[in-house]
Amino acid sequence: MSVTPIVQFGTSRFLQAHADLFFAEGKPARAITVVQSSGDASRAARLGALAAEDGYPVRIRGQQDGKVVDEERRVTSVKRTLSTATDWAELSRVVSQEAEIILSNTSDSGFDPKPADDKARPDQAMSYPAKLFHLLAGRHAGGGKPLTIFPMELIPENGTVLRTRVLEIAAGQKADPQLVRWLESCLWVNSLVDRIVSEPIEPVGAVAEPYALWAIEAQEGLALPVVHPSVELVEDLEEIERLKLHILNLGHTAMAAFWMEGEAAPDAIVRDLLAGEVGDRVKAVMQAEVLPGFALRGLGAKAEAYLAVTLERFANPFLDHRIADIAQNHAQKLERRIGAFLAWVREVEPGYEAPVLDALCAREDA
Contact 133/123 with Cβ under 8 angstroms? Predict the structure, then answer.
């Protein structure tokens, strides 16, 4: 079995077509242990197939620089798969002895506290941050060096948020001060990820657009995890984070909300909705309520350009991006994509009017 310096929490098709592909294509090529933290037995086939010797396929389909892209790539970076539900001892060994980097993408609600987080020993019912705390405590107890931790959840300042939550758990566990200092000395990295991954390939693999980004915020002592054209080191994530979260992701969530209001087919896909009444409503709210908000924040021109690219990506004729997939975790997405946008704009214009976006948030709260 290969030594795996990358330990990844999450088995989603997004990760399959994003970081896992970058680690296979980039320099140096990096070996990964993929960890299923949910314990979902229905995904056992996916977990088993991820580490196949000949890898798994990612189909890249779309338009880039005016040219049609339609090609298949193989991902061979995943060397081992484990589950927190059944393989805790081996996972603890890998984190303690092999890991240099920990990645995660555990959904928009993955950092939320759970009642089991207060338990003194690892428990499958714990949240991801609590499980991470126990794994890091085990590495510290074994004399391991601090790690670099890359959360990829779509949460502003995700590295800072995860660090804060892990330290809260440490305080609740009355952790030894030396362990707390060790946790603080790990590099908790803020990053932003972007790629539309539209559908799975069974039992493992995915179809994705050509566009891809992993933007990583610089900090002292940080090195890029891999050199790849889609991986960028930036001084400040906020501008690109706001554009993605409040245009592309907000657009997806508004589209899902409008779709749920009507009688659209359950298998409706984004490009078809964009071409119809739902798409007209999305474009209208972007023009009337989103772009003026960005203008108040001094990002009007950049937002207009980003919206044009976003709508082109939504209309990709090759991707069957199901709106039902986007609608998952809808309440959390409304809060973090639309509610947060309104709060951001109203910091500079308290009376900013956005009746459609306000109504979407209010309907969820009702």
Answer: no
Q: Is residue 1 part of a domain?
A: no
Q: Are 133 and 122 in contact (CB under 8 A)?
A: no
Residue in 133, 130, 136, 106 with CA at minimum distance from that of residue 117: 130
Low-confidence ranges of the chain (pLDDT < 50): 366
Tokens matching residue 60: 């890249």
Asked if residue 219 and residue 180 are part of one domain, the reply reads yes
Of 236, 264, 279, which residue is a domain's last? 236
Rounded to whole angstroms, the Cα distance separating 197 from 210 reads 10
Residue 189, judged by CB atoms within 10 A of its CB (0-12, 13-18, 19+), counts as buried
Domain boundary among 236, 265, 283: 236
Question: 241 by DSSP, 3-state: which?
Answer: helix
In the chain, the N- to C-terminal Cα span, in Å, equals: 52
Instruction: Based on the fold, state whether residues 205 and 243 are members of the same structural domain.
Output: no
pLDDT tens for each residue of 233-245? 999 999 999 999 9
